[in-house]
Batch of 2 targets.
Target 1
Amino acid sequence: SFPKRVTLLGSTGSIGTQALDVIRSQPGKFTVTALSAHSNAELLIQQAQEFRPAAVVIGDEAKYKTVKAALASQPETEVLAGSAALADVAGRDDVDVVLTAMVGYAGLLPTVRAIRAGKTIALANKETLVVAGQLITELVKEYGVGLYPVDSEHSAIFQCLVGEEQNLIEKIILTASGGPFRGRSREQLAQVTKAQALKHPNWDMGAKITIDSASLMNKGLEVIEAKWLFGLRNEQIDVVVHPQSIIHSLVQFEDGSLKAQLGLPDMKLPIQYALGYPQRLPNTFPRFSFLDYPQLTFEQADTTAFRNLALAFEAMGRAGNAPCVLNAANEIAVAAFLRDEIGFLQMSDVVETSLARVSYLAAPSLDDYVQTDHETRRIAQELVGQV
Ligand code: NDP
Ligand code: MG
């Protein structure tokens, strides 16, 4: 029922700011209980002044004073700092939905806290399900909460599944744009620059996911995300490259019928669907026309050139803490690539070697995941240093 009280973690990012656009465009449907940023104090302050939430969290404790001072005339907004505060606002009483729009492993603990507090989760932070998909899905069952995908591919599948029985899924097909380097060989990929990698053909997103899209790690993370969201066996997940990003993904059922969800590449629609679920809310998002896209094309993903996709399938197959290792090593590798410390192909080298080196755990606890993440970051950072 509306209005829904929303906590928006990562409100200053690409998903976060678009989620606030959605909220603005639906007067009376949503109220904002809490907002969080990592270091962008300026935008967080501006958002707090507009939405007047009960709390804001600035991750970077050095910026606490700045935010506190700027919001001094707004006593209804409590100002908090640090990562523990992020988990605290995720579990507040006066919240219905927590939208996890922060990037990376940092999403895990606040999401766990929100589930334990009985909150509905609108999940943008795919890393949470990659790191600890089994644990998260078990918690979701135990606490009886809804967990609705924001990621466009998963939203597509979720929408295709309305009115269907999950146990009649034969397989899903995740579409991938192929990114800016689609069609390049390994030799060519060795030469690509950070500036080229940061230019995605169809989507405007945060830096980390943009690099992941260029390396196809994003699709690998999405394969693992889909496994847990939809309770699939590994063999039930396929990937097809579809450069126009119009078909957002497909589900095939056991009678052979294939359902797809289509639309222009615009994250506002899946964000709104996750926030509004089970209700589909009217909106004036730009409409898709077939006449603007006379050709929708499909090709196989090149896992030889884009090794990350193969590594993600491998990690999913090994299960246990392997996907957690994959994720942590990738976060270190992407950060190093963004600092110009390693080349494009070396990102998958760091991931592959980390997967071989970090001790394997078949049935990790939450503490084990925290440990694995920590150990992997240390090893991956060492590998970066040796390049
Ligand atoms: P951005 O980099 O644009 O934004 C990230 C947000 O998280 C910012 O608010 C940032 O704060 C905050 N943040 C950064 N580091 C931390 C940290 N260590 N702890 C807490 N908060 C932090 O990312 P996106 O919005 O692009 O992506 C967010 C998530 O959504 C990712 O998991 C991504 O995979 C997923 N996603 C994104 C899509 C997109 O179109 N952008 C599509 C599908 C999924 P600050 O601004 O202060 O740095
Ligand atoms: Mg996606």
Target 2
Amino acid sequence: MDSIYLVGFMGSGKSSVAEEVEKQLNLPLFDTDQIIEEKTNKKITEIFAEDGEAVFRDLETAVLKDLPSTDAIISTGGGIVERQENQKFLKEQLCVIFLDASWETITKRLSNDTNRPIWLNKDRDKQKLLESRKPIYKSVATLILKTDNKEPDELASEIITHI
Ligand code: S3P
């Protein structure tokens, strides 16, 4: 089976849906953010603050390419599509799911978040960022799932039906 890549904005539910797919399919789960934190022994907020976003994007790009392209579930960071080479890579994969959450859902889910440097950055217009990334997520996806008002297990079942 080709690996299942989950893409979408911060707070769209990638991690919780990935965990449900993992449970239901009993396949290994890889989370690019988590791998980066393990590799660097730093929190993502620390990488952004100490090394800058470009270093984080380099790490993320390297991690993506290293993951198994078969028999795995891969939850990607919301900014994975910031690099064109990652867009190209994802377009070559056969199972890329875009979890499409509305701005309202995202703001509700992330209201108390302290782990996402871009979300916490007051100088960045996150709603604009969502709008600019949406067409890119769509362009790399083989399946688009609206996630508003849906539980992770329901979404996981929809993904499993698709594959
Ligand atoms: C980011 C999303 C985060 C994480 C980092 C940058 C982004 O991942 O990779 O904070 O640029 O949208 P999640 O989508 O898992 O929150």
